[in-house]
Write a structure and sequence with these properties.
The structure is a homodimer of 405-residue chains. With 405 residues, the first copy, chain A, is an alpha/beta fold. Chain A has a domain at 3-174: Acetylglutamate kinase-like (Carbamate kinase). The first copy, chain A, is 33% helix and 27% strand. Chain A contains twelve helices and 20 strands. In chain A, the strands form five sheets. Chain A has an eight-stranded mixed sheet, with helices on both faces. The first copy, chain A, is globular, with a radius of gyration of 23 Å. The first copy, chain A, starts with a strand and ends in a 6-residue tail after the last helix. The mean pLDDT of chain A is 93. The A-B interface holds A 16, 19-20, 50, 53-54, 56-62, 64-66, 68-69, 71-73, 75-76, 78-80, 82-84, 86-87, 93-94, 96, 98-99, 143-145 and B 16, 19-20, 50, 53-54, 56-62, 64-66, 68-69, 71-73, 75-76, 78-80, 82-84, 86-87, 93-94, 96, 98-99, 143-145.
């Protein structure tokens, strides 16, 4: 007997047939004598519709009311799944975030979980009831509904898996697992059987929309065994596990790309100490995340060009902040949306030299110019002209020996 | 300064434009320096959709999960209306049933309100905040969402109006008030300025879908001044008030009809004492409400025909119960769905004789056969062949002097 948390995303509960299909998967787990908690998202498209209504009725909307409206989508699927389970003979009951409760802070729209009540769920699991829980939501100290941000149901599931000491947290989605690269542009991409938390965290932050970044960080810190798999096939997925569990480590596990960044260059900035920090403090105050940064001195050393990337959606805001910052003297602001960030990820890099060198050589061979470079312990990212994205990803996939035979 | 509870039904909040319109009406009340609580239903069609999903996914659905799913509709409109109010400069906040709380019993799907918390709402009203509350829902002792039954938002509104000692409870709907008869079949029907609680209660029970019956009973017992009016025009509606407030009472205030009943006749029942009670106890155990009843002895007094009406939707169930009741000897069961109940209502009847006589004469003049008669202190109902419905209602409307000039 195992204790399993299952999570089904919006496409897995898109309509009544999908919900019935989910009920059958859950039933299979209970037939194996497992204790099962199920988290559901809203039916595909529902949350988008609710967010649209909120934005249309009040462009500068109050986050507390935003949470009131958008949390309703999960409530519908939780109730419907409990009914589908009951209808197929499985004892089931549904709960909302406030009923568990998932206690969160008051950061409406992006709340963080403080504490989870497990008494009732534990009791119900021991009675043999499947516990269906509306994901993505919690309750603040002042008794208001909070939501955890888009993709938050992943975090709900992993958090409860940690609190319940679950044997596994299965995240069902519309892909079969984690791939060495996006199969839509790399036909030879392969599904990974296992991936480490660290690698998954990089993948999630780099925009591979498989798991919410926070859920991976939480799984890593609580050592929750997470599996990513498809609700539409019966194949095993990708296990996200501790590094120790992977005996034969690949040097590189995956290649990702992201086209939603934009490059900003502040030309001819006065090269005085602290100028970079002034720029980035201003942007941080404006809630703008800066990703890659490089600084080049001019030959005389008096001026410098400062280049960095921000999310494309924040570009206008960043420009406005910089233009109105009278204390930062510069000659011009050059921006470029037409860039892509290509990343090579692998925990094996730690013990293997030459990964960066072969990345740069591969790109040079294809005559792709590298604009910016940034690295972490297990990742190398480069910024290139967006039109070379697919070419670069495929070439690197081959270089690191990831192509399927 | 007055304290006002406003309630808007599904057609009044059907889309974002309707919700903005509601916000403007609420704003007008606050501009008059009034304290305002607003109850909202789900957007028109939403509850029907949710109920359909529930019934499709689990025909014998668990009422606790039914309540989980269907209560989500009001949550959306409550949040959206709070946002619309904030957007037009009115301080507003939304609450769900469990947050107030509306404590109810555990009769899921048709819960009754036990107690309402008023501390937070009173505080917020005094601060000048408009309190928007999701109607139709509450919370049981075991922390589960309950719903009050279709039309339950009327009851939520009247109940809180009573608890808050509100000066008025305005029920906004898609008609301009209470009419002397259905204007769709009686072109000369007139809107009533005032109607008594007793009359309104009869109207609601007889199927005039203006107010939920329970809300009227509650208004009557707590003397809540209820107004029924349209959210699409700016005309005054119909005030539902105590009999003392109406100086010049009409003998008859309104004529109603209902086509959703069916007639059942048990032919040749053994005429032994207690046989009728046996029949009706069986039906009550099956949760079937019986409306009109007549019993005719045969000439020898040994057998009797027992005729009664039930809701058309319960007819099949009633037949099954009677067929399997081996202790009730009868020769045949005859049923007829093709009947209509026509009712004449008015508190003035108490002091005026001859109302029934003129009703029967009017129908006889039109050659309409009366199948069953039932009366209360302020109402006379007859069952007739359904195809005479419109003819009967118009003729009675003229007889009692209700036609508009």
């Amino acid at each position: 007997m195992a204790r399993i948390v299952m999570k089904f995303g919006g496409t897995s509960v898109a309509d009544l047939d999908c919900i019935r299909n989910v009920a059958q998967r859950v039933k299979k787990e209970t037939a194996n004598n497992n204790q099962v908690v199920v988290f559901v998202s809203a039916m595909a498209g529902t949350t988008d519709q609710l967010v649209k209504w909120v934005e249309q009725i009040s462009p500068l909307n109050d986050a507390r009311e935003y949470d009131m409206v958008v949390s309703s989508g999960e409530q519908i699927t939780a109730g419907l799944l409990a009914l589908a389970l009951q209808d197929s003979g499985v004892p089931a009951r549904s709960w909302l975030g406030w009923q568990i409760p998932f206690k969160t802070n008051k950061m409406h729209g992006a709340a963080r979980i403080d504490k989870i009540g497990t008494d009732e769920i534990t009791k119900r699991l021991e009675e043999g009831t499947v516990c269906v829980i509306a994901g993505f939501q919690g309750i603040s100290d002042d008794n208001r509904i909070t939501t955890l941000g888009r993709g938050g149901t992943d975090t709900s599931a992993v958090a409860l898996a940690a609190a319940l000491n679950a044997d596994r947290c299965d995240i069902y989605t519309d892909v079969e697992g984690v791939y060495t690269a996006d199969p839509r542009i790399v036909p030879k991409a392969q599904k990974l059987d296992k991936i480490t938390y660290e690698e998954m965290l990089e993948l999630a932050s780099l925009g591979a929309k498989i798991l919410q970044t926070r859920s991976v960080a939480m799984a890593m810190s609580h050592k929750v065994r997470v599996q990513v798999l498809s609700s539409f096939t019966n194949k095993p997925g990708t296990m996200v596990v501790d590094e120790d569990e992977i005996v034969e480590k690949q040097i590189v596990s995956g290649i990702t790309y992201a086209k939603d960044e934009a490059k900003v260059t502040l030309v001819g900035v006065h090269n005085t100490p602290g100028i970079a920090s002034e720029v980035f403090i201003l942007l941080a105050d404006g809630n703008i995340n800066v990703d890659m940064i490089i600084q080049n001195e001019t030959q005389d050393g008096k001026k410098t060009d400062l280049t960095f990337t921000v999310a494309e959606k924040d570009l206008g805001k960043a420009q406005n902040i910089l233009k109105s910052a009278t204390n930062i003297h510069h000659e011009a602001i050059i921006t470029d949306k037409n860039v892509a960030k290509i990343s090579v990820i692998g925990v094996g890099m730690r013990s293997h030299a030459g990964v960066a060198a072969s990345m740069f050589k591969t790109l040079a061979d294809k005559r792709i110019n590298i604009q910016v470079i940034s690295t972490s312990e297990i990742k190398i990212s480069v910024l290139i002209d967006a039109e070379y994205t697919e070419l670069a990803v495929r070439a690197l996939h081959t270089t690191y020996g990831l192509d399927a035979q």
